[in-house]
Amino acid sequence: MxxxxxxxxxxxxxGPADVAFxxxxxxxxxxxxxxxxxxxxxxxxxxxxxxxxxxxxxxxxSGMLVVGDNDLDPPAAFRNIQEQIQAANGYGVPERxxxxxxxxxxxxxxVMMIPLEERSGCLETLLIEAIYEISPHLKPxxxxxxxxxxxxxxxxVQQAKMKLQSLISALxxxxxxxxxxxxxxxxxxxxxxxxxxFDQIANFLSQFDQLVHQA
Length: 215
Fold this sequence. Notes:
The chain is of the alpha/beta class. The chain folds into 2 domains: 9-119 and 196-212, 3-Layer(aba) Sandwich (Rossmann fold), CATH 3.40.50; 123-185, no CATH class. It is built from 8 helices and 4 strands, in the order βαβαβαβααααα. It has helices at 16-29, 45-53, 74-87, 123-134, 138-149, 156-171, 199-206, 208-212; strands spanning 9-13, 35-38, 63-69, 108-114. Strands 2-1-3-4 form a 4-stranded parallel beta sheet, with helices on both faces. Strand 1, helix 1 (16-29) and strand 2 (35-38) form a beta-alpha-beta unit. The protein is globular. The two termini are 29 Å apart.
């Protein structure tokens, strides 16, 4: 896997939809530039971290942010990230989310679990909250649809993904089949990134340089 590193800060996240979210959030909020990379799966962080460590300009990275979803068990989800960082060899392994760890010859590593504050859920949880913040009338409609289809019997993360896809389809007249990774490339404002559910993440990214310098 050949990787070109273009920025001194790197975000490592689970998949292409996460990459799109962070790229558009950074642009919308005028945050410091990050190189955003996809691991292409919850179990593939190790491979991406290994590939990054072999890339040219790796020595110019000042800090690396590894992002994952809390899902249904935040402590277990964080341990999964820890174990994969450890398996990549050489990187410092943070003991807690939000705290930097550095080892000789490697950039400082920070883990961000979404939602923050060890709340169960996933990125889609926050995206739905942002949509409901400007269109609260849609919530009872989506909840009724979930009840009608018995999706309300699914777990919290499965429901969030289903409800978000339903909202995207309903809000994107130009292309109701739009996948999340393309939601910010459509003419409609489907998921507004200036809303309060994203404030904590934006503030974290804005202070990332100060954080990694503490490692």
